[in-house]
Hints:
The complex is a heterodimer. Chain A has a two-stranded antiparallel sheet with strand order 1-2. Chain A is mostly helical.
Amino acid sequence: MPQLRLTGRGLWITVLIAPPLAFVALFIVYPIVAAFAYAFYDWQGLMRGDFVGLANFHQVLFVEPYASWTRNAFTHNIIVFFALMVLQNGAGFILAYALWRELPGARFHRVAVFLPVVLSTIIVGYLWKLFLHPLFGVVNQSLKAIGLPFLAQPWLGQDSTALWALIFANAWHMVGFPTLVFLAGMQRIPTEILDAVRMETESEWVKITKVVWPLVAPSATVVFVLLFVGAFNWFELPYIMAGLDGSPYGSTDVLGLYFYRTAFGNVSAGQQDFGLGSALAVLIFVFIAAVASVITVRLRAREIQI
Amino acid sequence: MTAAAETYYEKRGLIGTLGRDGLLQIILVANTFIMLAPIVIMVFSAFKTNMEIFQSPFSLPDFTNVANFMKIWTQTNFLRYLANSFVVTGASMVCILTLGTMAAYAIARYEFFGAGFILMFFLAGLTLPLKLAIIPLFMLMRDLGILNNQLSLIAVYTAMGLPTTVFIMTGFIRTLPSELEDAARMDGASEARIMWSIMLPLVRPAMVIAGIQNVVPIWNDFFFPLVFIQNDNLKTLPQGLTTFMGEYTTDWGVLFSGLTLSAAPIIIIYILLSRQFINGMTSGAVK
């Protein structure tokens, strides 16, 4: 292998490689490394103060009221992850299976299911906020129209339903993504295998659980990991639909909102604290990286090479 | 119908197959209704007055009533937001595709010390949630003097788009045959000339995939403008939408027409290019 020399070919390769490398180094790698460093300092506004060791981490994890805020937000992220696992990835698998049969109109259904995915979360958030309005929203109006007026609720205004309303809006927005990833996985199953299965069993249930599901394992790995990372990064939809405080009464507060509020302050509590914010960011980051790696390794292990 | 399918239908019985397919078809139709109805209601409501929206939310509107749209056109900064989104997204895409192709071309076509390491370096950026590094990014933009400046957005979007682009383009460029390249080299063409005139025309399909995968999240992004941009005249569309939704809280017709106008560009392009969109946006997840 020739050495990289700053003449001729070496110079040409450097010209090609250096600018993109510099962008990634400056705007991705440096900020992430710096976020770790920031968490160990005391911050006065935008000024970095003294090195304080683990004090920021200690405060967000064990000192009230931060500790209960952290616990509250974290619990909601867990609920969001598992609920979307069923509502979004589960529905995605069923829809993919239905699309895979290529029944009449399948092409149209495929385009329709992916349409919300291309929309901005901001549009989706406002749209559902208007639809879920207690008096004039389409959801409650529909419930009244079909004779179920007692089901009409202030969906976003009470703490028992607010988080679930957000989860539903998210599932509506993103269900097309796991659907088409699963569909691509199913389309890669060799026809010989499917023909062989048809000879063996008539049961649709056996076919799905014993053949299709194991063979789309690579797709499942991808959508599970992406959902996990997405659920613990959740910010835009709750920000638009529930506000920065996770209203009502913190019932929709999640780590993303809590981190943003701590770092940059909000209207009600103008205090901004880069030290505590960075400590939260590092904790979330390490948690996501650790769990995502474990999930990836565990799920990869069950993938079968066709 | 294939032989296998025929025996299959005989074995199952026509009724069973129809029952199963019927159920799947019902699921698909119901789902498509749930996906499209909100968008249709949004568009209908954009042509209605408050009173019409509250009294008959599902009825067909009078499509000649464009009063709501006129209000947005004349009384808000909407066109400015739209133009800003085009500028930021366009500039980011040019940077991403140029820099991404340069890096991918070098990694894929030349053997040099550290090529594997450099590819790993780019790929590491694929999975990192950059939102969590927003505090250092904010300080960095302040030190560079580009806070409240669209250059900050273009810089972040370019850096975020490079990992996927390098990944997709490297894989594609590696599959290109080297005969053309070798022949040109025999004829004495320079490396730059070979890349520009011979290889680049061949990588366009991969550029489309990489472009679509990046253009949608950038066009839709809200988080980075929220932190970097304060000046109303510099806001992008999703961010401007929050300003605008806050001002017209009681005028639902205007709110719905604002949402409709914001959604229109990407919906229209999606409908025209749905196959490319679906391939592009799932290409990272589908091996």
